[in-house]
Every structure is written in structure tokens, then in C-alpha cells.
User: Fold these one by one.
Assistant:
Number 1:
Amino acid sequence: MKWWLVLLLVIPIGWKVAQLNDAPAVQRPNIILVIADDLGQQLGTYGDPNARTPNIDKIAAEGTQFNAGYVTAASCSPSRGSIFTGLYPHQHGMMGLSQFGTQRMLDNVPKLPNELKKLGYRTAIIGKRHYEPESLFDWDVEEEDYEEMFSDRNVLAMSKRAVDFIDDGDEGEPFFLVVSYVDPHRGGSDDGVNYGRNRNTKFPKLKSGLPENATPPSQIEPFPFLGLDSPAIREELADFYGAVDRLDIGVGALRAELEKRGLWEDAYVIFVGDHGPDVTRGKMAVYESATRIPFLLKTPGKNQGFVREELVSTIDIFPTLMDAATGNARQPYQGRSLLPLAKSAPPPTWRRYMFSEYITHGPGQFYPRYAVRDERYKLIYNVLGRKAANPLGPRNYCNAWWEAQTDKYKDTAIRRVYFRVEHPPRVELYDLENDPHEWNNLAGAADFAATKDRLMSALQDWRQYTNDPLLDPAEFQREAVKGLAHD
Ligand SMILES: [Ca+2]
């Protein structure tokens, strides 16, 4: 019997997290999970020259910074579904955005707040949820004020709501607090305002009076993965970094309140982005710029400052926090507890491959693709290849995409990179060591045929092992009909 078949037989029984109800009454640690919306590694602690993020950087300095942290999908709902279930989108069922009525989480998947609540935790989510059905989740407090959090980006009001939840609890009662900021997502109360005709919505640089001094466009260095520079690109990214500044101010305010109550030092704190920035080759792609995220973990205590290179994923958050709460992170988790990596001891054996996917996003955006990387190489499998153009459309493109269309870049290598966004080949292969921005597709090169085959085989094994419904042509067709429908 194949190894993955053995696991398949075990996993359905294990959906329920076993034997947690009878855990002994012990003092459990407080847990804080901070989620940023559409943020890649654009932080000072990851070496970004534009970011002014002292508060978030401090979490890295006190804890463990994972340089190779990934989400399962670069779309809000599928990614958040994975954070809260420890499963890939094709397993938890929400393979695209949840607000259009076609994508919902399966009833029988494990849910992190529900499991922590069984252990005696008070649970709260302050800010963006973006999953369906909301009734599956057992939060004591859910605060999602659209105007305050999305339109006004009032990060200070969000911190206030978070501490109100803490102050309402009994002393010594452990809490699981999720603060889910909307920055630096596009939009806000300037809804409808964009960067020009047929262009994307603006990033909200200034909201609720913050930040007081955003970096001017002239001082912005464009994201390296875009490969282009222009005044319009700088203007757009200055707006993005203004929203990042505000996010950091919010995290600082939250931390200050927790410190005031003596609740910061002994808490477990995780900081992640739900996927990379909403620019071309970012959100909705499976490039590194889409799926690689800031991933910080602070464990109780002071001044750790570890930096790890292991491949870690948001599917590891569930087992990590169960491990933090119970001292145990047994199967049936897809991911692994990260606590063994948050130590100065030599690293244990770790995973060799990292997987991510994109199935769909909003209406009409069904274009399934999968990615697998090892220490050095990355393969992308675009299931439809050039049978269908990538249906994301110009509204999803940034000023760099428009810049690449100008005559100046005719017949250049960078134009081909942007062309590949709309017309991807079936298979892409990149050498991340020599080509970290994934510009030079090696899939057709004879020298790399063995690497390509090995990664494709790992990818197929993983899809089978994780029961990907899209392996079944009838299911694929059903999802295609759902995903290509327009509202
Ligand atoms: Ca998002």
C-alpha cells in the first residue's frame, strides 16, 4: 500500500482533534494572532528599505522570524480558511472569496477557536473574518465594524476593542485574541477612486489621521519583483507603504495596552500576512511575491531574535497554537508545530517541499494553479495552461503592469514576464537561488528536466494525499462552472 493511501485512511477519522476535552486543568498561556491584509515581506525586519515598522519588527527581535513563511493561497478567504483550520483550501472547501455565495467552508473541518474554547479559552476576533459560514466558528466576541475597520482603517479603535475584550475576562482566564487588520488592502473610504481609467483602486495612504508622515513617492524603491520603476509606480507604492505604516502603529498600540496589563511578555504572539500585496504577480498569483509572507512567532520570555530558513506555512499555525496550549501537537494536523524551531537548539528534520495553490477568487476568476518549491527550485503547474487566458483582467493590474505595456518595453525580457501573467504556459520552473523574482522560466530547458519531473511528481503526490477534489474531472467541471460564473 502506498504511503499516502495509509495516511488517507487515518486522516478522515482524525478530523476531530482527539482527547482535548479531558485535558487537565492547567494554567494555559494567552495567545494573540495578528493578521495583516495583503502584506508580503514589506517590513523593516525583512530588509525592506521603504518600511517603517518598528513595532512589528520588535516582535521579530523578541521571537523567531521565519524567512520562508508561506500562505496556502494568495486570496483572502482561502488563506484565512487555512489559518483557522490548518488545511489547504481544497481541503477546507473555501477555494475562493466567501462573499459571493459559491464558496463555503465544509462543516466537519477542525476550527482553531472552537478547539481552544474547549480548553477553557475565551476567544475573540477583532476585524476582518472573510469566511463562510460564520456560524461554524465559536467566538465569544466578534467585532467586524465595516466602516471603522475597512473604510476608516481606524487601527486605534481596533486596539481599543481588543483590550475591552481582555478587560471583560476574568483574571487568570486564558484568552485567544485575533486582531485582523484590513491594512494594507486597497480601498477604504476613497472607494471608487483609482489610479486612472480602467486601473485598480488606490491603496489608502491616509486614514483616520494616520500615518502622520507618510514616505513621499520620490523616496520609495519599487518592489524588486516588479522589475520596473516610474513616477506612477512610486506614487502607488507610497500609498501602499502609508497603509503599512498605519498597520504598524496599530500593532504598537495593541502591544502597549497588553504591556500595561502585564500580558505581553508571557503570551504567544504570531504575526502573519494573509498573502502578498495586491499588485501584478502579487495577490492571486502563486509566485513568491504572492504566497511568501511575514511570519513571526514570539513565545513567552524575552529577547530571542532567532531567524529561521525552514519552509513554514500558515497551516502550521493550528498545530503550533495547540502545542502552545496543551504541550502536544499530535496528528491529525496537516501542518507541524513550529515551537521546536523557536529555540536555539539545532533544527530537527523538517519538510522538504512547500505547496500552495490558487483555484479561484471572485466571480469569473477560476484559473487553477499549484506551486511546489524545495530549498532551491520552484515549479508552477497552470492546469488550464494557454487553453484559457488568466481571467484576472486589467482591473487587477497595478501601474507596473501598465508601464510594461508601453512601447519602451517592446521585445524586452520584462515585457515577457508580464505577458506570462496573462498567458501562462502549463508549467513554469524557476531557480530561486539565481532568479529570486521568477522571471526566467526554465521549464523547457533540458538541463532541468529531472528537477521538473521530481517537483511535478511531488506535487501530484501531495494533491492525491490531500484529497484534492479537482483531480476528479467531474469535480473540476463543477468548480469551473461555479468559479467562472459572473455576478
Ligand atoms: Ca487579503
Note: The two ends are 45 Å apart (CA to CA).
Number 2:
Amino acid sequence: MENLFLVCGLSGKLSILMADVHDKKTRSYNMSKIRGKDTKPEMIVRKFLHAQGFRYRLHDKKLPGKPDIVLPKYKTIIDVRGCFWHCHKDCNKGDKISTTSEIVSGKRISAVKRDKIKSQKWKELGWRVIIIWTDCELEPKRKKSIKREVNLNRLMKILKIKD
Ligand SMILES: [Zn+2]
């Protein structure tokens, strides 16, 4: 009887452990999706900026919310946001996709809240904030994208305007 309990206990514990590992994996996957740290779209922007001679800092810990790309010389922060997770308005990848999952909706809502707070803080500190929407502006899944070229060139022009 005691042995049976032991086995049950262990296997029970094991499955709980496994479930937790899975949750952690899912969580970190979701978080990486939301935060978009070092993602392909961010790399596209970084590569472009570097090739154009812009110098930047990444995930600057000195600034609230550790912004993705910071260009001190231009007093500009570039926030690279995924259309789905950050609910891009008037975008078919952002606001037109409905989800039945409460967890997903909850995460999207908190991402939007965080975005608003971060942008406000950056602006209050005197930074210019440029938002790049990854799915519709960069089309990262396409090898070649005219939209991407246009948007990156627009970004370069905006950066060069001193206000
Ligand atoms: Zn979009």
C-alpha cells in the first residue's frame, strides 16, 4: 500500500513537474512573441540602420521598458511591435483577428497597456518615438518586399529630420 502511494505520489509529482516545464516553455515563447526581443523583424531594422551608418544601442536598461533600438544621436527610440500581439489598429493582422482564448486576449490587452505607458514615459523624457509595425510594414516572411523597402526608407528620412 505504502509502495503504491509512493509510486502514485512520484508519478503525480512528475506530471506536475512536466506540466510546469511545458508552461514555462509556452510562457517564454509567448513572451518572446510579445516582447519581440532579437526577432527577425527587429534584425531587419537593425541591419538596415547599420548599413545606413546609424549607430544605436539595444534594449537600453537605463531607459524605462528597455526600448528595442535607441539612437542617442537622433534622440530617437524605435519600438518594433508585432501587429497581432500589440493590436495594430486598422491592420488585418492586428485588430481584425479575434481570438477565443482568454489568455491570448489578456496578453494582448496588457501588451497594449504596457506600450502606452512606455511611449508616454519616453516622450516625457524628451525622446522621439518611432513605432514600426512588423507584419504589415516589414513583411518579414517575404524574401523581398517593396513595402519593407518603402517603410525603411521612410524611417531613414524621418530620422534625418531634426525637430
Ligand atoms: Zn500591422
Note: Residues 1-35 form one domain.
